[in-house]
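User: These chains co-purify. Model them together.
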Amino acid sequence: MQEAISLALKGSFNVHPNPKVGCILVKNNEIIGKGYHKEYGGHHAEVNAFKYCIKKYGKAKATKLLFGSTAYVTLEPCSIFSKTPPCTSSLIKYGIKNVFCASLDPNKKINGNGVKILKENGINVEVGLLEKKAISINHDFFFRHKKGRPFIRMKIAQSLDAKIALSNGESKWITSKKSRDDVQQIRLACDAILVGSGTILKDNPRLDVRKNIRNLNERQPKKIVLGSSFLKRQNDIKILKGTAEVIVFSKEFSSYAKEGNLIQIPIKKSTTLQDTLKELGKHELNSILVEGGSKIFTSFIQEDLVDELILYISPKILGKESIDSISIEPPIILSGAKKFKIYDSMLVGDDIKIIMRKKNKYK
Amino acid sequence: MQEAISLALKGSFNVHPNPKVGCILVKNNEIIGKGYHKEYGGHHAEVNAFKYCIKKYGKAKATKLLFGSTAYVTLEPCSIFSKTPPCTSSLIKYGIKNVFCASLDPNKKINGNGVKILKENGINVEVGLLEKKAISINHDFFFRHKKGRPFIRMKIAQSLDAKIALSNGESKWITSKKSRDDVQQIRLACDAILVGSGTILKDNPRLDVRKNIRNLNERQPKKIVLGSSFLKRQNDIKILKGTAEVIVFSKEFSSYAKEGNLIQIPIKKSTTLQDTLKELGKHELNSILVEGGSKIFTSFIQEDLVDELILYISPKILGKESIDSISIEPPIILSGAKKFKIYDSMLVGDDIKIIMRKKNKYK
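Assistant: Joint model of the two components:
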């Protein structure tokens, strides 16, 4: 199973929003097949393991070997048709005798059904081998299925006095180049980047992962914008020029929007941030990186919707008229203040990076 | 000399404002005497080394042994009468042949004179053995003599949004107990603690080092207060009840002040913070720990008078009406922002501690 987990990790960021899955096939104490889920839409790990076996031994011998063999899979085999046929069918077809899965699939459409189907077909199934580890490699995927919304990472680059820009908007750059490079790595690991419309108008960022950071085929994270005011200036807007989908939540439908990769989702006056995130969960986004600006940071913190807070603190002081990173309503007493738990911290370039999680963190 | 430096360190915090000094006496490759400066007002290292020798060998044999011996001293022997007679005289009297000192004494009254007197009396003197190390153990002492003012450490305990208290003044406690214990260690290493009059009125702190932290005989740091408004309430004021001297800088002389350990230093309207620090340098304070409040933090930062900034950041958010830690005038452009250099950082309890120094740091 350890080998299957290592294989799963090869899938890296290409499988989003699918989980990373690995599969090892064993017969007479020898590995006869191995595979992992390589990219979204492609074959699942089990199917790749069968293909490996057939390629290595030829169809006739492989068929013989596979019959009565044991499969180690990091996640419950799927029981549904999605982009590919259900893996349970393949396992049954090849006459696999034993299936060890590290954990059940949290997806409600599967969750236990895969195991049930296998058992009904006379296969011995055991669930739970290295379960914790297997879950941890797909943390955000499990989170989304359990909570019905994406895992929210929030990244703030601020000064010692907790400012993110001068009053004239200048914010390039508060933190050092190494910190900004580090953010690129975080972007790569998230399904989408969320900002407010004001940030688009003010900074007109690309919100992309630079070419030198990602591998050639790795997809760019989607962009999510709360508010549509920036669409009036769509000819200049850099996020609309990229290849990644841009999802805009807005009270008004903008007729300006004509770009192919733009999705507008109308919201009502009563729509909460929580509602918006649930909607994004339905769009199969496992994780979102919230990148600004001040109003967005404040709303997410105010509503306790930040699961992980990544703070880069630059040892500078921006002064009193500069823009606060977070500006929530104060607690009545100190013990009522919103709290995080520091999880890790490190020097990055000239700055310090602090990773925090919610106190009542996801288990 | 390494041995002499190790000895010097035994003097720890009891020698303030004197430097820590160690001395080793060698004859025929054997150590015949060793001593260190134990406490302010007591014998200097050289004299203690002679005493050690006499105690060990008896007066007659010691006199014989000392004649023609070599002394290793971590600091230039003093040439002036202060609390004790000059050490140069003792070295001459006992007929020491060679003196190695790690560094010159930065005190302008000595600085090279000790060496000169020894040389004039036929003693071979060499300066510079392990100089850097010897200077580093008395960093603040050297700083004061070179710059004419104490080394300024500033400690701030703040939230993620850089607040030090709620708007109602509640600040107990933003950081965890381990962080507050850690501050006790910093207090112990400083000659004085400085706060604003407002902090005394608001929090009425002791500003003491707790008994369990310091050794029985270690002195409490002096207290310095900028402003005298708190003296109107002197019956309640805790810092006036302690044993340590309280130095108050104020534009008005307060007739309320009758306590024995209170010193009032009048200042003019034109007196700058820099002037005040020079005055404290004359009071032989090598280092000052600035502990609050917001106005004091702001003034020191605004005037570039913070040599070391120690920040404890608690992973809490205090919100918008709460009190800012530092509130200086903003720079016109971002590259003009005041900067520190991160020197070290660590987790302390639930918080993170960041130690920063001025970019143009003392060499």
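Chain B touches chain A through 46 residues (CB under 8 Å).
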